[in-house]
Amino acid sequence: MANPLTPDVLVDPVVLTRALVDIESVSRDEKAIADCVEDVLRKAGHLSVRRLGNTVMARTRLGRGQRVILAGHLDTVPVNGNLPSTVVDDLIYGCGTADMKGGVALALHLAVTLPDPQYDVTYLFYESEEIDSEFNGLNLVAEEHPKWLRADFAVLLEPTFGAIEAGCQGTMQVDVRTRGRRAHTARAWRGVNAIHGAGEVLRRLETYHPRTVTIDGCTYREGLSAVRISGGVAGNVVPDECVVGVNLRFAPDRSEAQAAEHLREVFQGFDVEVTDSAPGALPGLDAAPAREFLAAVGIEPAAKLGWTDVARFAALGIPALNYGPGDPSLAHAADEHVEIGKIRDGAATLYRWLAP
Amino acid sequence: MANPLTPDVLVDPVVLTRALVDIESVSRDEKAIADCVEDVLRKAGHLSVRRLGNTVMARTRLGRGQRVILAGHLDTVPVNGNLPSTVVDDLIYGCGTADMKGGVALALHLAVTLPDPQYDVTYLFYESEEIDSEFNGLNLVAEEHPKWLRADFAVLLEPTFGAIEAGCQGTMQVDVRTRGRRAHTARAWRGVNAIHGAGEVLRRLETYHPRTVTIDGCTYREGLSAVRISGGVAGNVVPDECVVGVNLRFAPDRSEAQAAEHLREVFQGFDVEVTDSAPGALPGLDAAPAREFLAAVGIEPAAKLGWTDVARFAALGIPALNYGPGDPSLAHAADEHVEIGKIRDGAATLYRWLAP
Questions:
Q1: Average pLDDT, chain A
Q2: How far apart are alpha carbons A286 and A320 in whole angstroms?
């Protein structure tokens, strides 16, 4: 197949977005798009290129004092009758337009057209972000080639509709368990009802006041929610166990250990078991490249409430934020689309920030 | 097969108990025992005998002013390595000894040896009590031949260890449902958590004070128990529905409609749906045959807390109670047994009551 990412296409991030969208790349099937991306990066003489699986890394080696990362995933969720792309007025429709080939196009466009950025830049186009983290290209690079990820600041081009979403909240799942003693319900007083006992757990959830925490101007709103409850043996048996599944979303000033400790305090007197957990990420907007990036975009950052790969950069000690042209509420939708204006704005902003 | 229920066997209720136990009769496999029972009843000239499936009915037609029923089921739960019967000291071991061939033996012994009772007597030996009620012989007779069940009073020879257990409590299952609105747990404040909302349902269960009701000297202790709880969509979703399954055991002074009304009051403000229900049975100890029966036994009646076929008689307007030689706590156990002394006591008591 001739590479559709020709020089004519690469100079226009809008045309490039469409070209990338039209290379189907559902998770675990990214070889074609990675080949095309690697090919054009290798043709740019100012970049040094490496590959791991279907993840492609390219970087400048200009000896600048600081290095920044521009990163985007190449994969999409399954196609949903929305390929090839179409254009209606100012909108490009198609699988991956918002999440996140519009963002990938910005990075690839800069990579090949800006040979002398003011910082050294590492471009990372990675595989399998939309599925289980064992396949995540960013994760695999962190394990196999951690040096590829050395940097002072990272921009993840996930859809934010042109806003800056900094850091992210952590998430923790716990099971809170009550125990009782079985009995026949005709003689219920001989037993101890574990479901009745869970009333106190729900009472604490109802009366819980979640914190609101502001860090570097970003406001994080925590939350504690029952997400599952189960218990019961039979219609005529006083139940001896009830389990309440609880999800805590916690601001990035708490570590996972602190979050777990907090939940043990909230549910003191009950059996609390952590079943899953992912750390948050501090916004980390103090570094010079971050401050200049904020100035270039010209709007105040907001807190990212959901969990994104920003947290993987944070775990490596690299401040990171989300910034991309797509509308996050359209991600994974059949009518997914991206505004051409947002792509042009994004390209101009990144150029303003990185140009010498 | 020669009928093991010979005249020599029929005159001794202890020997008769063993003979009945040794005719295996697991539910839905009662033809052999029903044939033997029908055969000996037909040989007794003072009885008029009818059969429906494997249920055998025999009655006197002496023109007495009142008629009583003695009833017992012929089936047992599955054999559990406990046949044929064995005797150790004063105990007969084997499947069905307690539940309830000891009781059946009392009725069958009286049927063939007492030609002139002071009341007309209807003896009912019925099939499939231990399984789903669609197979229950008493139920089938009530539908097909309701006249067979005309009587002023009934004694069900279920195991009570020689006590009188009168009436029975009703039971009702309801689903109490809370509703909310889904949201991502990272933005939990946009949703309404239906599991948190169930906290109020559990609070009402915790603080509920069940009634204790005394009727005809029998004390019924009600109970309200959560028996099941379920809710939850996914680990990151505020759930929009939670269902608490609740079992009410209610004294027989409430009808099913009144019990349902009571539950709607207890859970006012929530969606309450009745999913299953069976009425209780008043002890009904006012009728002359009942009063004379109590005098013959010579002990105070106690309330039956579980549900038994007594309620089926009550539904037909016939006061009924449980009275049998077996120990109810041994029913369905592998080491099921019956005390020989309790069989002899029971036979003497019934004779004292029914002899002219």
A1: 94
A2: 11
pLDDT tens-place string over residues A226-270: 999 999 988 888 999 999 999 999 999 999 999 999 999 999 999
**How far apart are the C-alpha atoms of A162 and A172, rounded to whole Å?**
29
Q: Flag if B235 and A227 touch (Cβ within 8 Å).
A: yes
Helix ranges, B114-239 (H)? 137-144, 194-197, 199-207
Contact B198 A193 (CB under 8 A): no
A129 part of the active site: yes
Comparing CB atoms, the residue among B196, B206, B225 nearest residue A188 is B225
Burial class (CB in 10 A: 0-12, 13-18, 19+), A16: buried
A24-50 per-position pLDDT tens digit: 999 999 999 999 999 999 999 999 999
State how far residue B172 is from chain A, nearest Cα, in angstroms: 10
DSSP letter string, B125-160: EES--SS-GGG-HHHHHHHH-GGGG--SEEEE----
Q: What is the ipTM of this complex?
A: 0.73
Active site residue A273: no
Tell me the percentage of chain A whose pLDDT exceeds 70: 100
Give the residue among B237, B76, B66 at the shortest CA–CA distance from A173. Answer: B237
pTM of this structure: 0.73
Answer whether B322's CB lies under 8 Å from B304's CB: yes
Report the Cα A70 to chain-centroid distance in Å.
14
